[in-house]
Write a structure and sequence with these properties.
The chain is of the alpha+beta class. The chain has two domains: 45-113 and 242-400, 3-Layer(aba) Sandwich (Beta-lactamase); 114-231, Beta-lactamase (3-Layer(aba) Sandwich), CATH 3.40.710. Strands 2-1-15-14-13-12-11-10 form an eight-stranded antiparallel β-sheet, with helices on both faces. A three-stranded antiparallel β-sheet has the order 5-9-8. The model is unreliable at 1-41 (pLDDT under 50). The chain is built from ten helices and 15 strands.
Length: 401
């Protein structure tokens, strides 16, 4: 197996028998050597070669369908709770510049993991609105924004789904997804400011069966706007959504290449987009909160490690992120920024991301208690490359053998 968990309990139970210390020392030495060998064997050159073959087969299939388009840049990171096993780039991030695990890609809806973390962080730190109202999961959006009194709150009739932070996070608000049906007064191929988009979204009315899942970028845009209405204790003014992520959330994972579309970290090498269709919703404020982050494969492994290790949020809030928040299919749920699937010997947390010119996939397979986990992150600078999910599953299977 690629990962092996060994735990030891310390403590004395009575006086040791003669010779116990020397035997214990010998056993400890053998165990230490065995563990060292096991860890060293976790990710071998043979596994790296197999992973390389899988990626090259995927890229060859992609090349066969790309027509006259340029060759893509591709990056991956595979790791466990203990170490990064493989991180590598394929192709070029610019003419004559090889892609690496540090090459930056737009990661699409993986941004929802960051937005959800920021909202949960504010809740966990007792943030309030400007009027002193506590920011909680059950905070009704009608308390956050003016002009949305037609969005029901918790005091609504039992057969009406309230629009709260919880329902936004789990995509059960029943608010329509604006990227599926854009507001009539907007131009999906043009620019839009966040205030204008918010004004248009306020006109929407919840529809559909209460408490049902509908994938919605509307929800995560509204969550980003909520972040900008929240105050931490002792603060006089809220932070912008980007500032809160950059100053509070990103540093907890020591992210180096992670930033925002059009606002990359200094020195970032960004893979240029390769469009397979006319770009739509590709201006930053269209993507606010839902798909506006840019990152690298190396950084996303660091993000997974920090999240699973409790360095982004306390354990109880991570539990919420990967809970069965909303049923999507009989065996698939949406938590908060993650799809959740319960398999025979592990839970699988996944999310894909698709924006014009880029596709991303982030996957974590976590054992019981989430102390042991394996992650696979894939990034490519073109949209809709079929087979990315299959590649990720194949790499995950290889990693866990």
């Amino acid at each position: 197996m690629w990962w092996v968990r060994i735990s030891q309990a310390a403590g004395e139970r009575g006086a040791p028998k003669p010779g116990f210390a020397s035997r214990a020392a010998w056993v400890s030495l053998v165990l230490a050597l065995s563990v060292t060998q096991a860890v060293a064997a976790e990710w071998t050159a043979g596994k790296a070669a197999q992973a390389d073959t899988l990626v090259k087969q995927f890229l060859a299939r992609l090349d066969a369908t790309r027509g006259a388009l340029p060759k893509v840049s591709f990056a991956l990171a595979i790791g466990t709770e203990r170490a990064l096993g493989m991180a590598k780039g394929y192709g070029e991030s610019a003419p004559g510049v090889a892609a690496t695990e540090r090459t930056v890609f737009h990661v699409g809806s993986l941004a929802k993991q960051f937005t959800a973390s920021a909202v949960l962080d504010l809740i966990g730190r007792d943030a309030t609105l400007r009027d002193g109202t506590a920011v909680t999961l059950d905070l009704a959006l009608a308390r956050v924004f003016k002009g949305v009194e037609h969005w029901p709150g918790q005091d609504a009739a039992s057969n009406t789904q309230p629009v709260t932070l919880r329902t936004l996070l789990t995509m059960t608000s029943n608010l329509p997804n604006f990227t599926r049906l854009p507001p009539a007064t907007t131009n999906p191929w043009g620019r839009i400011g966040a205030p204008e988009l918010l004004s248009e979204l306020k006109k929407l009315r919840p529809s559909g069966w209460p408490n049902t899942f509908e994938y919605s970028n509307t929800s995560y845009f509204l969550l980003a706007e909520t972040i900008e209405e929240a105050l931490l204790p002792g603060e006089a003014m809220p932070h912008s959504h980007h500032a809160y992520l950059r100053q509070t959330i990103f540093p907890r994972a020591h992210l180096r290449e992670t930033g925002f579309i059009g606002d990359y970290p200094a020195g970032a090498v960004v893979a240029p987009p390769i469009y397979r269709r006319r770009p739509v919703f590709d201006q930053p404020d269209w993507l606010k909160g839902s798909a506006d982050v840019a990152s690298s494969a190396g950084d996303l492994y660091a993000w997974n490690a920090a999240l699973m290790g409790g360095r982004i949020l306390p354990v109880e809030l991570v539990d919420l992120m990967v809970s069965d928040g909303a049923r999507v299919t009989p065996d698939l749920y949406y938590g908060m920024g993650w799809f959740v699937e319960h398999r025979a010997d592990y839970d699988l947390f996944t999310h894909s991301g698709l924006v014009p010119g880029y596709t991303a996939l982030n996957m974590i397979a976590a054992g019981e208690g989430r102390r042991a986990w394996t992650s696979v992150t894939l990034l490519v600078n073109t949209d809709v490359p079929e087979g990315m999910d299959t590649l990720a599953e194949d790499l995950l299977r290889l990693a866990r053998e």
